[in-house]
Specification:
160 residues, alpha/beta, six-stranded parallel β-sheet, 6 helices, 8 strands, 32% helix
């Protein structure tokens, strides 16, 4: 595993994808048509730890899911964007909103729709089971953990 060049004082915002990062990327579909996703409580605790360290937190997801809504209820100060297909535009608007430079952003994503964001920020991070093209992004940190298995907590523990 490569060693990240994180410096807590340089990271002003932690932005993450949701599916494949907070979840294992699987969707359970029941016979009644309802669905569910599993989220690690370690990763939820990671958000609390980041916020306590005065680092902003945001989720930019290409999907809409109840799990993200619950996350927003638990942490009202975080920025949540769902059903977003052009994640880089959302990321840039967040940086403008908070007057943050790209080199002060940690972005965590696992698939090809995260590539532009990962290439744009100073601290790109992905999970062990990410798409192979994402793992090849220059200067990317790859967690030991898979998505949905405490990877977000692994990163926050390293930062803090």
């Amino acid at each position: 595993m490569n060693q990240p060049a994180f410096e807590k004082e340089k990271i002003k915002i932690f932005i993450s994808d949701f599916d494949g990062i907070f979840t294992d990327g699987k969707l359970t579909v029941y016979s009644d048509g309802k669905t569910s996703k599993q989220v690690s409580y370690r990763d939820i605790m990671a958000i609390a730890n980041i916020l306590k360290a005065n680092i902003k937190f945001a989720v930019i997801s290409g999907e809409k899911t109840t799990a993200i809504d619950i996350m927003k209820e638990k942490f009202p100060s975080i920025d949540i964007f769902q059903n977003e297909r052009n994640k880089i535009n959302v990321l840039k608007s967040l940086l403008e909103k908070y007057n943050i430079n790209p080199e002060n952003v940690l972005y965590m994503g696992d698939d090809i729709n995260d590539t532009t964001c990962l290439e744009y920020v100073g601290f790109p991070v992905t999970v062990q089971d990410a798409h192979s093209s994402v793992k090849n992004i220059k200067n990317i940190f790859i967690t030991k953990k898979n998505g949905g298995d405490g990877a977000v907590r692994e990163v926050t523990d390293y930062i803090l």
